[in-house]
Amino acid sequence: MPITALVTGANRGLGLEWVRQLIDEVDQLYATCRAPAEADELRAFTETHRDTVDVLGLDVTDDAAIDDVVDRVRREQGALHLLVNNAGISGGATSDCFGNVDAETMTEVLRVNAVGPHLMTQAFADLLAAGADERGTATVVNVTSQLGSIERTSGGGWHSYKASKAALNMGTRLQATELKGDDVIVVAMHPGWVRTDMGGANARLSTEESVTGMLEVLYDLQLSHSGQFLAYDGDELPW
After folding, report:
1. What range does the domain containing 59 cover?
2. pLDDT tens for residues 37-48?
3. Which of 76, 86, 203, 229 supports an S-S bond with 15, CB 3.0-4.6 Å?
4. Is residue 238 included in any domain, yes or no?
5. Residues 213, 124, 20, 2: is their CA dihedral positive or negative?
6. Contact call for residues 7 and 19 (beta carbons, < 8 A)
7. Is residue 111 in a domain?
8. pLDDT value of residue 185
9. Closest CA to 228 of 219, 236, 216, 220
10. How many separate domains does the chain show?
C-alpha cells in the first residue's frame, strides 16, 4: 500500500536530511518550506525523484497556506501516513537571556515552533486518520529539543526557544490524546545536538546520524508510545 509523508522545514539541516532518508522509503513525499525558489538542494531532489517528491511552499504560521497544502494532499492522495513537524527557528539563541527577552522575538518563536506544529497536526487530523485506516497506524513526529524539558532546564540564553519547545511538548500530549482513538501515534522527538546552522559546528551528531536514529525509533513505534518525549536514540526524556 502506498505511503505518503510530509516534512516541514525541508530546505536545510534536519529537514533536508529527513527528505534524503525518506525519499526511497515512501511513495509520495511532500517537502515543504517557506521559500522553495531558494531551496536549491531540496529542489534538486525533484530532478532525481520526479515521481516521488513534490516541493511545496508553506509557512506553518499561515492558516491559508496550511489549508492549501491539506487540500493538495487530500486531492492527490486521500491520506497521510507520516507528518514530520520539523520547521523551527531559534530566536535570539544565546543572547535571548533573562533581561534581554523581547515580546516580538518570543511571540514569533512560539508561533513557529509550537503553534505551527499544533495547527498542522490539527489540519491534517482527518488525513492521518485515513492513513491509519489504511496501514493500522499513522504517525506524527514533532521535532522538539531536550531544552524544552522543564525538569532539566537551567539558566543562560535560548529563553524563547526553550519556552517554545516546552509548549510543543505539551502540544504533543494534547495531540496524542485527541488522535489516539484514530490510531494516530504522536511523539515529541529530540534529535540530539546536531551540526546544523542552529546547533553549530561543534555539535556531536551529523544530520545523517540524527535522522537515522529518529527513523529507527519511528519504525518501532506502537500506539502505546503515543504522547511520549523521546530522544533520537529511543531514550525517554523527562518533561
Report:
1. 4-231
2. 999 999 988 888
3. 86
4. no
5. positive
6. yes
7. yes
8. 98
9. 236
10. 1
Q: Is the pTM of the predicted complex or chain greater than 0.90?
A: yes
Task: Answer whether residue 236 is part of any domain.
Answer: no
Extract the C-alpha cell encoding 9: 522545514
**Which CATH number fits the domain that encloses residue 171?**
3.40.50.720
**What CA–CA distance (Å, rounded) separates 128 from 180?**
11
Name the pLDDT band for 198 (thresholds 50, 70, 90).
low
3-state secondary structure of 55: strand
How many whole angstroms separate alpha carbon 51 and alpha carbon 70? 19
For CA atoms 139, 142, 145, 148, the dihedral sign is negative
Alpha-carbon gap, residue 142 to 118, rounded angstroms: 9
* pLDDT at residue 197, rounded to an integer: 67
Nearest to 18 by CA among 202, 185, 26, 173: 26
Per the CB < 8 A criterion, the answer to whether 148 and 166 are in contact is: yes
Question: Across the strands, what pairs with 85?
Answer: 142
Q: Are 230 and 189 in contact (CB under 8 A)?
A: yes
Answer whether 183's CB lies under 8 Å from 226's CB.
no
Q: Give tens-digit pLDDT for 61-70.
A: 999 999 999 9
| Structural element, H or E, at residue 5 | strand 4-7
**pLDDT reading at 94 higher than 90:** no
b/e code 149-182 from CB counts within 10 Å (16+ = b): beeeeeeebbbbbbbbbbbbbbbbbebbeebeeb
Q: List the grid coordinates of 10.
A: 525541508
Are 223 and 177 contacting, i.e. CB atoms less than 8 angstroms apart?
A: no
Q: What are the residue ranges of helices labelled H in the chain?
A: 13-22, 40-48, 63-76, 103-110, 116-123, 125-135, 159-179, 207-219
**Is 90 part of a structural domain of the chain?**
yes
